[in-house]
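Supplementary Methods, section 5.1.

A reviewer requested that the exact input to the structure prediction be made available. We therefore reproduce it here, unchanged from the version used in the analyses.
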Amino acid sequence: MTYTKTGGDPPLIEKYGDLFHESRNCRKEAVEECGLPLIDLQYLSSSDEAERQACISDMATASSEWGFFQVVNHGISDELVERMRKEQRKVFEMAFEKKRSSSSLNDSYRWGGAPNAPSVNHMSWSEAFHVPLSKISDHQDDPPFNSLRLVMKEFAKAMAELALSLSGILARKLGQSPEYFPENCDERTCFLRLNRYPPCPFSPDVCGLVPHTDSDFLTILCQDQVGGLQLMKDSKWVSVKPNSKALIVNIGDLFQAWSNGAYKSVEHRVMTNPTVERHSIAYFLCPSYEAPISTSLQPPLYKKFTFREFRQQVQEDVKKMGYKIGLPRFLL
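The structure derived from this sequence is encoded token-by-token as follows.
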């Protein structure tokens, strides 16, 4: 296969190409394709109490056993999703230097992985805009981004409402107050991330996004039909089958600690495709930096900490060791 780099692609081969000639990465192949637990949210408004409770129980069970589930009838229209995808594609088609140098969207553009990655295990074959919700409207004098901003604000609002609803349901299932989330998570602390994974001539040996857990409460992912998302289930990687009608929800590190381990933050990754680019949009439900992360469930598994302390520890570990340790640092 011949790889043709476009003017919008980040210089991934130029920066990391030698890594692929020095050694081939021996990743364990995903052994099967799975359909994530599917939750139909229309049952939350059912007049039948048994149907409502079954829907909530299915969501909690998936959060405990998988750390992931997918939702349909989620209230975000196909028309809004398509407008968001159209604007996303337009901005990623811009010249690399325009994306890299623009101060729009809070200087949020990023690509690749560690600057001095020692192996392909430390780099990501992707580019992204990782935007705080409160910064979406900044720099409105930059025309290429103006139409994107308008759709992003509408899309982020819809995703935020869904994230707060789902987190509240999962909290109540544990007998905890759902009010923690609207009190501590708002547009000043939450993020929207636009992802693009260019075709990769070294696929399937390369990750578009390296294995990780999410450092938030809840992530909601809107992906296209290309596929590539994989998660760790029963000590093996499984590939998630795309569902055109569904959004994917996964538990983050903070929810695992807040739920005292009832809900699981599961390692996941994105694998590249040799011929087709992939796009996705992720919403991250995060608290304020000073919000306390603790549980009233007994006996507690984790020390009480703040989101700031968690982030600082993660950044320190990545700088010193090259990878995130995360929640094990906060075990009692």
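The CA atoms of residues 81 and 155 lie 8 Å apart. These observations are discussed further in the main text.
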